[in-house]
Amino acid sequence: MDYVIEMLGIRKEFNGFVANDNITLQLAKGEIHALLGENGAGKSTLMNVLFGLYQPEAGEIKVNGKTVHITNPNIANELGIGMVHQHFMLVDTFTVTENIVLGNEPKKFGTVNMKQAEQKVRELSEQYGLAVDPTAKIADISVGMQQRVEILKTLYRGAEMLIFDEPTAVLTPQEIKELIQIMRALIKEGKSIILITHKLKEIMEVCERVTVIRKGKGIGTVNVSETNPNHLASLMVGRDVTFTTEKADAVPAQSVLEVRGLSVNDSRGVQAVRNLDLDVRAGEIVGICGVDGNGQTELIEAITGLRKVKGGTVMLNGKNITSFKPRKVTESGVAHIPQDRHKHGLVLDYPIGVNMVLQTYYQNPFSKAGIMNYKEVYKKANTLIEEFDVRTPSETTLARALSGGNQQKAIIGREVDRDPDLLIAAQPTRGLDVGAIEFIHRRLIEQRDNGKAVLLLSFELDEIMNVSDRIAVIYEGQIVAVVEPKETTEQELGLLMAGSKKGAGERV
Amino acid sequence: MSKKWTVLAVPVISVLLGLLAGAIIMIVSGNNPAAGYMALWNGAFGDSFYTGETLRQMTPYIFAGLAVAFAFRTGLFNIGVEGQLLVGWLASVWVGLAFTDLPKVVHLPMAIAAGALAGALWGFIPGFLKARLRVHEVIVTIMMNYTALHVTNHFIRNVISDGSDATDAVNETASLRSPFLENLTDFSSLHNGIYLAVIAAILMWFMLEKTTLGYELRAVGYNQHASEYAGMNVNRNIILSMVISGAFAGIGGAMQGLGTFGNMFINSGFSGIGFDGIAVALLGGNTAIGVVLAALLFGALKVGSLNMPIESGVPNELVEIVIALIIFFVASSYMITWLLGRFKKKEAK
Amino acid sequence: MEKRKFGFAMSMVLAAGTILGACGGGGDEATDNGSGSSDEGADKFTVAMVTDVGGVDDKSFNQSAWEGLQAFGDENGLQKGTGGYDYIQSKSDADYKTNLNTAVRNEFDLTYGIGYKLKPAIEEVAKQRTESQFAIVDDVVEGLDNVTSITFKEHEGSFLVGVVAGLQTKSNKIGFIGGIESDLINKFAGGFEAGVKAVNPDADVAIEFAGAFDKADKGQQMASAMYSSGVDIIYHAAGGTGNGVFAEAKSLKETDPEKEVWVIGVDRDQAEEGKVTVNGEEKNVTLTSMVKRVDLAVQDVATKAMNGEFPGGEVIEYGLDASGVSIAPTQDNLTDESKAAVKEWTEKIKNGEVEVPTAPGGN
């Protein structure tokens, strides 16, 4: 086979920590090659080595058969390697064209020749089917568009080999479909692509071959045609992974959460939750399913006291907790795994151990008479870290330094440990890899089996279908239907979420 | 381990770099840097008198630095230390003058408390505006510096004194003056405030690192959303932080009013101590011990530089430049480490 | 890598230590030198002055005092420095005591504190250093035998420039801009007003205070308002703030060379400050100045002290009679009538015929 890029036996260490250990990746001309691994497995490190951001301790890089030393990103660019970053590196107030030519502007008498640049951008976007308006401002275009600008940036610089770093993480399903088409168009034009991802579906759909790394080690390269998602997952995680979560039937008992006639406004003052009723019983998981922006976030914020309630009541175990302050809600027996773990879930600049008492620091034994007892705090933290398999160098490591999965495990540990009557989990698996997802699902079910009421909010239908015992479909701030996963299909849910069966739901 | 050493080495190296840059300036302008720095050293620590003066100058710097650092640790930028210091100064002097027959054990703490309260009030206003109306504290505190300057001047002229531009000296029962320290340092104006400053530094460390209050304040400083989620009262903590910061600054003013000067006079401009406090806090890495060390450096530079022209013949203007260079290097080093830290974080991601 | 950095830091610290050590040694030497020079200068009389925050080049009384010290030094063959005469600048109000002590520690025989702001510091330091001699300019320290107080009859000099203003105003509107309102500045205002009224009872004198001695911008603003209200002569007693008055007058003169705008300077002969070139022609907006001869007073007290006649505990008031205050030698812009009137009123004040008020509002 003709390889355009060969990374052979790459090894990279950071202060004694081996991030890449003897990894080999060979990219053939005209293929889409997946680089698969869990969060923190060393994918980004490997690509940064290729891109000249890190120097490897051992191993060899060949481009088009010739050994090269890539000591900085400019050399990578010159060799025809382009990187489409996960976090876009664009200037919001510049136009598409200005961003694309930034640092590489066509000059005319010492000034930038924007006309010529725009022409070039237009040509490129037509050639590869990347529809963008060259004169639009970045701030005014969608995330999917912005990604195309990133792709155009690399093409403009003459990239032959493109690295896509988790490109689908920020896209909507429709945008993902479009991206896949773009990638195919690029291949047709003779480019080669490395796709960094942990989403197996995508790999199965577009890639020819996949190189798997686990905990910094190269596990091997397989042809996609000769494998299946289960096999890939087990290669990635190092053990068998089940996609359909095994669980016994729910044995629901008394009602724990009773929401009646709840109305809530969103931040702009527009009514987001309208006269909503919802019940969650002990020993069951209720999944809330709906298109983003239909009042889910406001519902949860209202229950947990983070948002003002306009009307209606929230009862917990028969006690009215409407409009309680967050602390009173917590003390009443509600735990909350927040949607955005960086914004709400953790104080990233606190040690992970200190984050474990974020709601309970003022209680015995973590403090007495206003004086903190950090010894007790860390003792508690260590038990939780062990019990919930939070992988961290130590309990005093800053939360910021942990991977997303481990941060989430820490939050779940903290919330579950308070032994709440109601556990609210909002998008608990967002951005996590299969191993972590499986772990979290098991924990949620475990809570249910222990007789807790669990309210799950997710935008992933798979997750809703697998984990929930009952599914409440939310549309425009109301629960329009409550169905059982066994008696419904993704198609039906999709229609309900779009509001089309609203009338029918009410008649039943 | 190595991290700890960089924490120490960076400010030390930057001070040395500043001295080096100052030396170059002195050589270029035809002065003798060795003589200049000798004079600086002698003027700051040359004998017990100058050591006393340096420690006296350090006292309000510690309070100003602690005030800035405390607010900074809770995510607020208190530019208003200067104003809080002025009102604290005024309030302490006022109480020091108003009561004549109280025993010292009552009167002195009362005067200091008055300074703390006044400073706290001056901090409360921007804190309240920030918490309730999201008005940025930098703008409010800058404005309140001017308000403080003119309000205190008005009070001195029209309320506390009879049209005079200085108040009488505070009563002995409210004075921080210490004959013991004065004798020890050959009549320097070192006063008991230095003990209070050290106690205040320990207090700040304890409050931030060891109490639930500090846990909350720092959490709010790092991440308001998470703090709110965790059930902390974010608005209350913002106000509290500004109040405590203002109280530190106010006591710093009391040090001037009850110690250094023993009175208050019309200030035609800012004393600069509050602004230097920002540099002290930054240089000290916003930690209590760092603030104390940085305050010592600033105090030594300020007092020692007075001696440079007369002992070494380095002209005054040049002295100002040299001192400014040292401060510049010190401040920029902080920025450099901060930037380095940022880069490291990004790489880690 | 880390080790190397650490080593570097260590060597820097060590180097610093060595330098500081050397400094320490040098410091001893310096003190030795100091005492040596004072030994050899035992017959020489040394003087120092501590400025207020205005600094030695404030174009006002700090500078004037320094000129007096320099004249004294020249007269007696002294060098600038610790063995002769020198000044120490204060950068903040907290520096006065430190600087006075520094002067004492450098064994100056006489130390001046320039400006009323130094009064508390002088009082305190003089009590502690009873063996040293001090003098305060512009204020009175009472009850201390080792302090002489030097004051001026500013109202008398201000009266004379008031006479000039009263005679030369065209608009009968005259302005006074003071620094901070105080007994001292009121002497200027009172004398000035009385002088104007003595020769021109119809003229109005607007008296205003800037609230600061170092705010040239404020001075300029106030002057601008006054001139545009029809005032044609402004007398300032506002130190650095007064520089703004000059700036405003000059800029008015530049835009309209025919406009009659005048400034009366204070403390020193401020003719230099008023120079302005309009269309290649040199003009001067300084009408004249009320000169406070701080230099003469400083020189006088120093000479007395050198001769063993230090007037400790006394308050010396320098007035017209002792040339402590006067109208400036630069009188190019004065009419002959004014010059004659100045002479006439000088005599009247000297022989006690006229008592000049020390605060405005006498009428």
TrEMBL record, chain A:
<dbReference type="InterPro" id="IPR003439">
    <property type="entry name" value="ABC_transporter-like_ATP-bd"/>
</dbReference>
<keyword id="KW-1003">Cell membrane</keyword>
<dbReference type="Pfam" id="PF00005">
    <property type="entry name" value="ABC_tran"/>
</dbReference>
<dbReference type="InterPro" id="IPR003593">
    <property type="entry name" value="AAA+_ATPase"/>
</dbReference>
<protein>
    <submittedName>
        <fullName>Heme ABC transporter ATP-binding protein</fullName>
    </submittedName>
</protein>
<dbReference type="GO" id="GO:0005886">
    <property type="term" value="C:plasma membrane"/>
</dbReference>
<dbReference type="GO" id="GO:0016887">
    <property type="term" value="F:ATP hydrolysis activity"/>
</dbReference>
<keyword id="KW-0677">Repeat</keyword>
<keyword id="KW-0813">Transport</keyword>
<feature type="domain" description="ABC transporter">
    <location>
        <begin position="257"/>
        <end position="501"/>
    </location>
</feature>
<dbReference type="InterPro" id="IPR027417">
    <property type="entry name" value="P-loop_NTPase"/>
</dbReference>
<dbReference type="GO" id="GO:0005524">
    <property type="term" value="F:ATP binding"/>
</dbReference>
<keyword id="KW-0547">Nucleotide-binding</keyword>
<dbReference type="InterPro" id="IPR050107">
    <property type="entry name" value="ABC_carbohydrate_import_ATPase"/>
</dbReference>
<comment type="similarity">
    <text>Belongs to the ABC transporter superfamily.</text>
</comment>
From TrEMBL, chain B:
<dbReference type="Pfam" id="PF02653">
    <property type="entry name" value="BPD_transp_2"/>
</dbReference>
<feature type="transmembrane region" description="Helical">
    <location>
        <begin position="83"/>
        <end position="100"/>
    </location>
</feature>
<feature type="transmembrane region" description="Helical">
    <location>
        <begin position="190"/>
        <end position="208"/>
    </location>
</feature>
<keyword id="KW-1003">Cell membrane</keyword>
<feature type="transmembrane region" description="Helical">
    <location>
        <begin position="7"/>
        <end position="28"/>
    </location>
</feature>
<feature type="transmembrane region" description="Helical">
    <location>
        <begin position="106"/>
        <end position="125"/>
    </location>
</feature>
<keyword id="KW-0472">Membrane</keyword>
<dbReference type="GO" id="GO:0005886">
    <property type="term" value="C:plasma membrane"/>
</dbReference>
<feature type="transmembrane region" description="Helical">
    <location>
        <begin position="58"/>
        <end position="76"/>
    </location>
</feature>
<keyword id="KW-1133">Transmembrane helix</keyword>
<feature type="transmembrane region" description="Helical">
    <location>
        <begin position="278"/>
        <end position="301"/>
    </location>
</feature>
<keyword id="KW-0812">Transmembrane</keyword>
<feature type="transmembrane region" description="Helical">
    <location>
        <begin position="321"/>
        <end position="341"/>
    </location>
</feature>
<dbReference type="InterPro" id="IPR001851">
    <property type="entry name" value="ABC_transp_permease"/>
</dbReference>
<feature type="transmembrane region" description="Helical">
    <location>
        <begin position="238"/>
        <end position="266"/>
    </location>
</feature>
TrEMBL record, chain C:
<dbReference type="GO" id="GO:0005886">
    <property type="term" value="C:plasma membrane"/>
</dbReference>
<keyword id="KW-0449">Lipoprotein</keyword>
<keyword id="KW-0472">Membrane</keyword>
<dbReference type="InterPro" id="IPR003760">
    <property type="entry name" value="PnrA-like"/>
</dbReference>
<keyword id="KW-1003">Cell membrane</keyword>
<dbReference type="InterPro" id="IPR050957">
    <property type="entry name" value="BMP_lipoprotein"/>
</dbReference>
<keyword id="KW-0732">Signal</keyword>
<protein>
    <submittedName>
        <fullName>BMP family ABC transporter substrate-binding protein</fullName>
    </submittedName>
</protein>
<comment type="similarity">
    <text>Belongs to the BMP lipoprotein family.</text>
</comment>
<dbReference type="InterPro" id="IPR028082">
    <property type="entry name" value="Peripla_BP_I"/>
</dbReference>
<feature type="domain" description="ABC transporter substrate-binding protein PnrA-like">
    <location>
        <begin position="46"/>
        <end position="358"/>
    </location>
</feature>
<dbReference type="Pfam" id="PF02608">
    <property type="entry name" value="Bmp"/>
</dbReference>
